[in-house]
Amino acid sequence: MAIIANAKVKTLSEAWSGEVSSGQHRLITDKPESFGGQDQGLAPYDFICSGLISCTMITLRMYAQHKGFDLGEFTVEADFNANKEGKEWIDRRLAFAQPLTEELHQKVLEICQKTPVTKTLLRSVEINTSIL
Fold this sequence. Notes:
The structure is a single chain. Helix content is about 30%, strand content about 25%. It contains three helices and five strands; from the N terminus they run βββαββαα. The chain has helices at about 45-65, 100-110, 115-120; strands spanning about 10, 20, 25-30, 75-80, 90-95. The strands form two sheets. A three-stranded antiparallel sheet has the order 1-2-3, with no helix packed on it. The longest helix is centred in the middle third of the chain and has 24 residues, at about 45-65. The protein is globular and about 50 Å long. It comes from Acinetobacter sichuanensis. Its EC number is 1.11.1.-. This is OsmC family peroxiredoxin. GO terms for molecular function: peroxidase activity.
């Protein structure tokens, strides 16, 4: 067993706000004003989307470097969705500054399904909780 990531959050004085730390990095988490927060930082589901799109970008760039080609500039965006029936899903969109060949287009879609965070999100994750 190996720890592959670690993060901690400390409450701030504003309701719903916290300072998230991971290694030397600091981020603010909050809820939007429409949910009673101050909208000073990412909401929890924003972090899920951020993890997915970051992993997607890094994996695609690593693949391109390994195969010796340049994907050029591109963006990855994700929306976390939920409906009244309790179904949840993520829509992920990629946009490339330069056009992709049909073959590369298909390969990118294939690689996106194999990124580590994608694979984690596609299966259930056990969460063990303890109080220290």
